[in-house]
Design brief:
Strand content: 5-15%
CATH class of one domain: Alpha Beta
Number of strands: 9
Number of helices: 14
CATH superfamily of one domain: SGNH hydrolase
Shape: elongated
CATH architecture of one domain: 3-Layer(aba) Sandwich
Order of helices and strands: HHHEEEEEHHEHEHHHHHEHHEH
Helix content: 40-55%
Largest sheet: 5 strands, parallel
Radius of gyration: 25 Å
Strand order of the largest sheet: 6-5-7-8-9
């Protein structure tokens, strides 16, 4: 018996040694793979640092690094996710998960300024640009220069569709945060969500949340899913070209482009109706801006031509969707609905980082167009008395 026990103990020791050596080898391989991928795709080579052809400015690499560091998300009731607080040189996010916006100093006479809440996805949040050059910051700067200083708040968040923006607005109203004007700038995330989910009116990556639902209560699902997630995040697995089916997989739609476009716009209009009802209750005004995208820019720089190439698959759907927006929004109140699809049609210079995100100059130009609309159509008016 003692001899058998010794053999068993010896076998167990050898097994643990083998497991330990295997884990060390895997860990070393993973470190090496991550180092290789970092050197190959280091921040200085990311599109955000070179889209407009001037990658040598020091802030660009700093911004790229801060973009990676500030990308951690926290759970947000109802709207699913929002970034955690972050403090950097070019990116700053407060405890509410809102990015810092340039606003003029408080008025010396104490008069209240109109509050402008800007909603949308990463194009509003400001992917690829510094705090002071996000769309809301550029809008605030434009209004200040026009003699109508305002308090502009950036409620944009990466990947948020219009329904999540409505929920965010509703929760702000519940907290007593009432704007004078609500600006929504978007359409791209709604389109991407419809295309990737195969259905309209739901958030991006909804398949991920279906897989995660109640997973802690089912060990048989939890363990395989945990192993799959670890493997899917492995640099070695990525280098080997192994694709694991899971939450990130996309279910491309099988609906005809015209039908999907119609459903996408109807879902968006339902959100507009909800916000309009809230505006009547709380007394704020609204303006909706359908964003431009790279495919609606006929004259493209070399960077934009390269970026547009992979988008060909979704072109029929996007073409139909943007055509419907153009037709329908022409008949609507011009003070409330503005189609910016062809905004950059006349320029051949780089304005896009990728499919929808703009370089800082692009944000400045779009913000000026939004600001002009708000002023020309009387969306902004000073309050004569402080808020109660």
């Amino acid at each position: 018996m003692r001899a058998l026990a010794r053999r068993l103990l010896h076998g167990l020791r050898e097994l643990w040694v083998a497991i330990g050596i295997t884990l060390v080898v895997l860990a070393m391989g993973e470190v090496a793979a991550r180092a290789y991928l970092f050197l190959r795709t280091r921040p200085a080579s990311e599109p955000r640092t070179r889209a407009d052809g001037r990658p040598s400015e020091p802030w660009r690499q700093e911004l790229a690094i801060e973009t990676l560091l500030s990308s951690k998300m926290r759970w947000e009731p109802y709207s699913y996710w929002r970034r955690e607080a972050f403090a950097g040189k070019h990116i700053n996010i407060d405890e509410r998960g809102l990015r810092r916006t340039w606003n003029p100093p408080p008025a010396q006479d104490g008069r209240p300024r109109p509050r402008v809440f800007v909603f949308g996805a990463s194009e509003v949040w400001g992917s690829g640009v510094r705090d002071d050059h996000t769309l809301p910051s550029e809008l605030s700067r434009y209004l200040d220069a026009a003699g109508v200083p305002a308090e502009v708040v950036n409620y944009g968040e990466s990947g948020h569709v219009s329904t999540q923006s409505v929920v965010t607005l509703l929760r702000e109203l519940q907290r007593g945060e009432v704007p004078d004007v609500v600006v929504y700038y978007g359409g791209g995330s709604d389109a991407l969500s419809a295309w990737s989910n195969g259905a309209t009116g739901i958030p991006l990556s909804e398949n991920r949340r279906r897989r995660e639902f109640n997973i802690l209560r089912h060990a048989r699902r939890l363990v395989p899913e945990a192993l799959r997630v670890v493997a899917s995040r492995s640099a070695m697995v990525g280098l080997l070209g192994i694709k694991l089916d899971g939450p990130r997989s996309k279910k491309k739609t099988t609906l005809p482009p015209d039908q999907l476009a119609e459903l996408t716009l109807r879902a968006f209009d339902a959100n507009v109706a909800a916000v309009d009802a809230l505006s009547q209750k709380h007394g704020f005004r609204t303006s909706y801006f359908w964003q431009p995208c790279l495919l609606t820019k006929p004259q493209r720089s070399k960077h934009e031509q390269k970026t547009a190439a992979p988008l060909v698959e979704g072109l029929p759907y996007l073409t139909e969707l943007y055509a419907r927006v153009e037709r329908e929004w022409k008949t609507r109140d011009p003070g409330e609905f503005t189609d910016l699809a062809g905004f950059f049609a006349a320029t051949a210079e780089t304005r896009y980082i990728d499919y929808t995100h703009l370089v800082e100059m692009g944000n400045r130009e779009v913000a000026a167009a939004i600001g002009r609309q708000l002023l020309d159509h009387g969306r902004l008016a000073r309050r004569e008395a402080p808020r109660p």
